[in-house]
Records
---
Amino acid sequence: MSTKDSPKVQHVISSHSISLMVSGLEDPYDTSWEVEINGAATLLESKKDIFFALNTLKGANPFADVALESGEVDIFSFIRLTPSVLMFRIYGEALAGAQPTVITIRRKDGSNWPVIPR
């Protein structure tokens, strides 16, 4: 969910490739972790998908709450993220030379999603 014509939305329009990094800093530091998610992003177009996304975000995203309460949905674009590869690493293991855990997410037909070059 982002305002129309935001840099996020412009990126999705110009390139469907996405990479998202989520990290958790822990004490001690070597137990900190990160998850990298690579995949594709598309804009939702159907009202059914948009309202499903809004209701899913309800209570967790204040912009979704305001959009639902006010009916001002058209000022936002809604982005669907479809992951293809997830990588998980713990910093201490990475510093010791261990490779990240890699999970490839397959399509319903069993084929792999295309891997986005790094």
---
Amino acid sequence: MIKLNKKATGGTWVPYKKYKGIKFLIKPVSLFSMNTIPSDEKKFNVEGFWDMFNASLINWEGVVDDDNKVLVCDEANKKLLFDFDQEIAGFVSTECMKLREKVVVTEKEAKN
């Protein structure tokens, strides 16, 4: 038996423990979205990495500008975060991949 966990595709709030009060709403991206990421791990494709980051990060809490005004999670602000904080970009990518594993659950996995 294979279970399709449709709820898992909507996104999950994940706390970013490095900074208090920061949470990211991350959803697993489809294989279609991941198509731009090369299979050769020795090559780093920034464009494909950005596509996955942009598609998987759908909201945030605790992200403000230099005047302490809340920043909306739009493409322009995500691009700034992506371009200047590789640690957060990696965190979002890792969490996205973890969430992908929760979408399709086999009978064996469900028993564990």
